[in-house]
Amino acid sequence: MAVYDENILKNPFYLAFEKQRPDLCRRVADFHGIVLVPCCESLNVSSYLDSHFDSYVLRPVEEGYKTVCGKVFRIQDRQVILGSGFPTPSVVSILFEETFYNDQEQSYSILCISRPLEIELSPIEVNPPPTYSLRSLEDVREFLGRRSHKLDRFIQNFRQAFKEQERKGLRHHITSTQVWCFSKQMLICSFFQIYIHHGIHDLIFNLVGALEASQDASFNKITRSFQELQQKDLGVKPNFSINLSRAKRELSQLNQHTSPLLKVQCLRRVILIATQTPRPSIEAVGADDLLSVVLYLLLKTEIPNWMANLSYMRNFCFSNSSKDELSYCLSTFEAAVEYINLGKLQKTGSKLPFWLNLSNWKS
C-alpha cells in the first residue's frame, strides 16, 4: 500500500460510522468484510444520514464485492472500481489498509480511500493518489504513460531558455520556474511537478549547489567537530533509539531524489520512521523530542550539501499549501540546521532552548 498515513480512529467519517451504525460494525465483522473510509482531507461534511454508510460496507461475493444496499465493487491495483449501482463507473484510489478487531476478536478490514464515493471527478482528478503516496519517479512515469512525451517537449524548451539566462541570480530562476510551471498548468498535479523537476534537476540543483557551496562547507566543518556526540548528549529519548538506524538509511537516500517534492517526502518518511509508534503521527511527538532526533540524524548521516538541499526544497517545491505536514517536516530540518549553525551545540551535550519550539518555525 501507499505511504499515506492518518489515524483512522480520529477520522470523522469512521467515528460517525461507529456511533450511528453499530449494527453494521457487527455485521462487517461477522462476514470479515471491508469498510471504506474516505481520508480526512477529502471530507467536506460533518454529519451523515444513517443510510449513507450502507454504500461503504463491502461483503465478498464471487464477482468481487457487494454493499448491503446492492452496489457492486471490484478491488484491483490499489483501486476501488465502482460498478453497478453508481451513476457512472469510476475508480477511487486506496491509500492504505488496516485490520481492525471487535470485542469478540473478529476481524474486518479498513480501506482508507482518497475521496468519498459520491463525488464525481474528471479522470485526471480521480486517478492520482494524494501527494504522500508518491514514492519515486517510477511511480510518476507509470501514471503519466504517453502524456510524458508532451512534458518532455516542455522540458526541452525550458532547458534552452535556462541556458540563455543561466548567469542570472537564484531569485530570477525561482520566479521563472514557477511562472513557467503555472503557464503550463502543472502545479495542479504533483505527478507533473515531479516529472518536470526531474527533467531540469541538473540545471537548477547545480545552480543552487554552486550558490550554497560556501555555506555547505562551513556547515560540514561544524558537524565534523561534533561527531563524538551520542544520542544521550543530544537528549534523544531511549524509546527512539531502536529506529534511528533505519531513519539514517532512509535519509541517506536524499540526494537520489531529483524532485524537491520527493525530497521533502523523504524527510517526512525519516521522521515517521525515527519516531515510529503503533499509529504514526508526527503531531503526536513533542517539539523538543523531534528536534533532538533530527539533530542526531543531521550529525550522523553523511549529506554533504544540506544547504543546497534545503534551499532547493524551500524555493522550488510549489506546494498548494505552506502549512501542511510536509512544510512542517521541512521546517523541522531547517530549525535543526540553524541551531547547529548558530553554535548552540556543546561538546559536553546540549539543551534545546525554549525559542526553538517547533511552533515558532512552522511556515
TrEMBL record:
GO process terms (BP) = early endosome to late endosome transport; neuron projection morphogenesis
Q: Which SUPFAM superfamilies match?
A: VPS9 domain
- Which Gene Ontology cellular component annotation is one that this UniProt entry carries? neuron projection
Give one Pfam family, short name only.
VPS9
In terms of PROSITE patterns, this protein maps to:
VPS9
Looking at the record, the residues that make up the VPS9 domain are 213-349
- One MF term in GO for this entry? guanyl-nucleotide exchange factor activity
What the entry lists under InterPro entries is as follows: UPF0507/Ank_repeat_27, VPS9, VPS9_dom_sf
Task: Specify the protein name.
Answer: Ankyrin repeat domain 27 (VPS9 domain)
Q: What is the lineage of its organism?
A: Eukaryota, Metazoa, Chordata, Craniata, Vertebrata
